[in-house]
Predict the structure.
Amino acid sequence: SRDIPLYECNLTIDTEATFRDNIEQILSTMGLAELTWTTQGKYKLLVEYPTSAVEQAALISHNFNEDNIIRDKIELSWVSANERVNQATVNFFNENEDFKEDSIKWPPTGSTLYNTYLAEDNNQPFRKNQQVSGITDPYHAQAAAEHFVRTSRKQHIVKFSADKTGLTVEPGDFITITAPTSNLTGET
């Protein structure tokens, strides 16, 4: 048994590359980490990873509803079928095998979850093969593969116009939207 840190990075930093490129390379090993801009024009690192509804609720900075959504229209869109993934393979250099090239798939072929995703996609195998630098153990490789699959399947985009409340939202902020006419009730 061994404790596994949420984030772990094992790569060589190129001193000739820009700071931003090196930071982006490090962040690529951290599934939900983002480097964004603040309203003051400065970089902001987001590494929030809520693991419960309570933790997520604590991160919500704005609530949009009928009072602050301008009713031109609310557009909802989901990723197209060819952008969804029902299985991802992550290639990495495995530190447990003397850094030999290795790969891991998620969900495993034939598993209940794999079969469910495949059925949802009309039995079309939508697969992604990704080389991930900085990940050198099977635990983080599997987490990366799972991240690729799950985010591709549940991402959707909501576009709306807001009153002046929207001016204080920054990239990466957690917000909720309640718009009964669009079937959105407290969507985060």
